[in-house]
Amino acid sequence: MKQRKTPLRKCTGCQEMKSKKELIRIVRNDEGEFSLDRTGKKPGRGAYICPNSECLTKAQKSKGLERSFKAPVPKEVYEQLLNELCGEENE
Ligand SMILES: [Zn+2]
Q1: 21 CA to middle of ligand 1, Å?
Q2: What is the pLDDT of residue 34?
Q3: Ligand 1 centroid vs 2 CA: distance in angstroms?
Q4: Band of residue 78 on the pLDDT scale cut at 50, 70, 90
Q5: How far is the CA of 33 from the centre of ligand 1 (A)?
Q6: Ligand 1 center to residue 69 CA distance, Å?
Q7: What is the pLDDT of residues 3-44, one digit of tens each?
Q8: Is residue 2 included in any domain, yes or no?
Q9: How many CA atoms lie within 13 A of 8 on its CB side?
Q10: In the chain, how many domains are there?
């Protein structure tokens, strides 16, 4: 019996397990800077989230990102991530 191996990650917003391809990685580097990681290769601690504003808002409310990064996530970071995500949605 062969199983297809799809690495699953949990969205920090809706808490659903999804394949890495469906999620977007948020990275916090050593300098404490947050950014979206589309390649999945940026160094630093990462958290996964569905690429939509809804899950990002959920993650903000539930402090899911804070828990993943074990660090406070400033409001500006959410705004920045939201801008990046929404920019993508509109294209
Ligand atoms: Zn989600």
Answers
A1: 13
A2: 92
A3: 28
A4: very high
A5: 22
A6: 17
A7: 777 889 999 999 999 999 899 999 999 999 999 998 888 999
A8: no
A9: 7
A10: 1
Residue 65: which domain range? 8-90
pLDDT at residue 88 greater than cutoff 80: no
In CATH, what number is assigned to the domain containing residue 21? 3.30.1230.10
35 in Cβ contact with 27 (< 8 Å): yes
- Kindly give the distance from the C-alpha atom of residue 3 to the centroid of ligand 1, in angstroms, as a whole number: 25
Q: How far is the CA of 1 from the centre of ligand 1 (A)?
A: 31
Q: Where are the beta strands (DSSP E) in the chain?
A: 8-10, 17-19, 24-28, 34-37, 45-49
Give the pTM. 0.84
Read off the pLDDT of residues 39-75 as tens digits, 9 standing for 90 and up.
888 999 999 999 999 999 999 999 999 999 999 999 9
Expressed in angstroms and rounded, the spacing between residue 13 Cα and the centre of ligand 1 is 5
At position 61, the amino acid (one-letter code) is: K
